[in-house]
Every structure is written in C-alpha cells, then in structure tokens.
C-alpha cells in the first residue's frame, strides 16, 4: 500500500515496513519521532507541518508509543528526534526543538 505524497501534509507511519517504503520511495525523508505527551514535540509540530508543505522532503511522523519497537530499533532515546534520510540512507539526526531555518537548511543540503 504505497502512499503518495499528500499535499504537503505529514504522513502518519503505520509500521516499520511503511517507514522503509517511504524512505525507499523518496529522495529526502524527514522522520519526526514524537509522543502525544511530549511538550517539546507539540512546540515543534507547526514547524514540521510547515516543512512538509514548503519543501520537497516527505515528512513522516512516528508515534513512539504506538510503534515502540520501531523507535527502539532506530535508537530513539528522547523525543522529539528528527531523522533525515537521503537516497534511502540515514543522513542526519537532530534531537530536541530546532528552528525551521536550521531544519530547512538540512533538507536543502540533502536534496
């Protein structure tokens, strides 16, 4: 079930296979590991949504409570964690709230 890029909306990741499919199918993918109870995640949410609509990167959202095994396998120890992939490979990871400008610069450098 391949999910095409929505009109700039983040994609809710449903499984490890779904995430792998997104990474394999797109040049630049930003994965936002978050939790509903995480205050900094809420602060970062508008920035992540704007990046989804304003850049060519596909933005994927992983709820670490829903997909605990995936988060553990990916080494996510705190949220928010933003993992960037370029051409199917892990490229860069940042932890914590980041400015939109810094995140956009990473997307542009990877793209």
UniProtKB/TrEMBL annotation:
InterPro entries: Thioredoxin, Thioredoxin-like_sf, Thioredoxin_CS, Thioredoxin_domain, Thioredoxin_H-type-like. It is found in: Cytoplasm. The active site is at residues 38, 41. The record marks 39-40 as: Contributes to redox potential value. Residues 1-111 form the Thioredoxin domain. The record marks 32 as: Deprotonates C-terminal active site Cys. SUPFAM superfamilies: Thioredoxin-like (SSF52833). GO terms for cellular component: cytoplasm. Keywords: Cytoplasm, Disulfide bond, Redox-active center. The keyword Cytoplasm applies. Its main location: cytoplasm. Disulfide bonds join 38-41. The keyword Cytoplasm applies. Belongs to the thioredoxin family. Plant H-type subfamily. PANTHER family: THIOREDOXIN (PTHR10438), THIOREDOXIN-1-RELATED (PTHR10438:SF468). This is Thioredoxin family protein.
């Amino acid at each position: 079930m391949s999910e095409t890029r929505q009109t700039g909306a983040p994609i809710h990741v449903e499984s490890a296979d779904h995430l792998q499919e997104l990474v394999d199918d797109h040049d630049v993918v930003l994965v936002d590991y978050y939790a509903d109870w995480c205050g900094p995640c809420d602060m970062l949410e508008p920035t992540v949504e704007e990046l989804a609509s304003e850049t060519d990167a596909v933005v994927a959202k992983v709820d670490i409570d829903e997909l605990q095994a995936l988060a553990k396998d990916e080494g996510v120890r705190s949220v928010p964690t933003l993992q960037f992939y370029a051409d199917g490979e892990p490229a860069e990871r940042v932890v914590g709230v980041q400015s939109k400008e810094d995140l956009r610069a990473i997307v542009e450098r990877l793209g």
